[in-house]
């Protein structure tokens, strides 16, 4: 956890609270920046052209936005875009801040324990043996890809058979 190296050796609660404060400053700042850009877009020609579409997007964000904002803390790379977009379409701030706080509580716990351990362990491995560290990432990527493909195949097979599993398909044939 190089960007939080000052937290090494600190009690968990110090790490947790520090990470929570960081996220509660960073995420709303991104949201407010999006709000500023969104206000400019709404007042300009783009806003006039997109009028009804912007209204529909705002309604969707107000309806589905809170869970999306909360779940954004489980993503890498999409988190900032989601918070910026929630501001750009002017998601209601009280709803946004509650969703961010809940997501931040989860993120601080995950990052303070599991993720920082994985990232820190990988960085130590990388500094000791870069090729081994790259190999670990490659193996993990292949494993995750295989699991995703297997899940999709299973789901697609279920859709073709009307949701029946292999055992349910074989049962009528064995009974006859």
- Tell me the number of strands: 0
Secondary-structure element string: HHHHHH
Strand content: under 5%
Radius of gyration: 23 Å
Helix content: over 70%
Q: Which structural category fits the helices and strands?
A: mainly alpha
Query: What's the overall average pLDDT, rounded?
Result: 80
Shape: globular
Biggest sheet details: none
End-to-end separation: 62 Å
Describe the structure.
- This protein is mainly α and 176 residues long.
- 83% of the residues lie in helices and 0% in strands.
- The protein has six helices and no strands.
- Helix 1 runs antiparallel to helix 2 (45-71) and helix 1 (12-43) crosses helix 4.
- The protein is globular and about 55 Å long.
- The model has no long low-confidence stretch (mean pLDDT 80).
Pick out its properties:
mainly alpha; 176 residues; single chain; globular
Give me a quick take on this structure.
By secondary structure, the protein is mainly α.
